[in-house]
TrEMBL record:
It holds the Pfam family VWA. This is VWFA domain-containing protein. It comes from the Eukaryota. Residues 1-17 form the signal peptide. The lineage of its organism: Eukaryota, Metazoa, Spiralia, Lophotrochozoa, Mollusca. Residues 47-225, 239-413 form the VWFA domain. InterPro entries: ECM_Assembly_Org (IPR050525), VWF_A (IPR002035), vWFA_dom_sf (IPR036465). The keyword Signal applies. It comes from Octopus vulgaris (Common octopus). Keywords: Signal.
Amino acid sequence: MWLRTLILLTLAISAFGQAMLNRNGERIVDTVREISQPIQDACSNSKADIVLIIDGSRSIHPSDFIEQIKFLKRFVDHFIIGNNGMRFGVVTFGDKVIMDNTFGLTQYTSNVELKDRLSSIDYRPRDGTSTQTGLAIKYARETLFTEARLDTKKIAFVITDGNSRNATETAEEAMKMRNEEIVILAIGVGKDVSEEELHTITGRNDYVFMIDEYSLLKELESKLSEISCKHKNEGCSEDVDINFVFDPSRMSYNETRTVTTFITESIADGKFSGKNVRIGTIPGKCQGLKGFYLDTYQSKYTARKHFNNLQRASIASLLEESLKEYFTCPYGGRKEARKVAVIFLKGKLIDQDRLKKNVQSLRKSGIEVFGIKMENLDSEMTLTRIFGRRNILDATKIKSMEEVRHELVNRICKW
């Protein structure tokens, strides 16, 4: 009896060993052990504080919400989680921040603990009557990122399948987050999400990812983990020549002061203060905008024409001059430096085709062109056609020029 039991046990162990082999003859035990460990591909020595801002609004189907959580669990396994490595926090939002499904950067210090906590995030359709993306970004910045380590890069991921309830608020909160040197990546899922809004959130075209459905999130894992590990706050470490272009004849005294203050504070900005950054200005020339005597004009019609120059923006001609002269050596330009033109736009643009042609000429010459919209009367579509979506900063939608200045510095320095 004892011998029979021993034989059966030996056969069982042998059979169990056979069962642990996959089709390639590899032991499944070893494979399972590998899967249970973090993937840690190129990220074994990486250090970052990352907040995942995930959409829990009722527009998401319950099965898609589960798919989203599965993706996050796979994603965090690309890293070593811990106080000396990567740390993760989560903000789940709908019409409010869903506190039970939100946690900070310091709470979970191992892959197992973090994935267990992610598994506990449940779908709350009753809290998802709207998509308050701006509120979630604000909460992440004001609450979770206050726990971030001083010597560590900060990254936020926004995952959503719809447009935010208040696009202006979302843009403002995203700008404030980026101004605190927090990098934002955005993932849009499905046809109802606005790619343009996601560009506004990230401030970078290459940090927006669009997919058709949640099941395709897995296709982004490697790319997103690579960015998380390798992204660096480069700042303006390279040589950059920047010319600010504006036309005082289009502005009031206070508006002109606003622009000149913007420029002087940009010069003083820490990211621009190095010797590698040179800043110049190209103001409009007001010659010829003189008064006239009582008997100069014989009719009110011809008298009114005297001031036509005041009603026409000279930006197009200024760009022609900047292309020909202001980035060349006699004006302090450097041959190998990046070249950037920043144009302040005020009033309705005249001769839009000419301006577009000049902007294109600047770009072909290797000059990057940014436009700052100051109570401009032209449509956003017109400005996008001329400058491109990423290169327009709308001061009419933002509370302060200081925030616009921070945004411009960050875009130029590619933060």
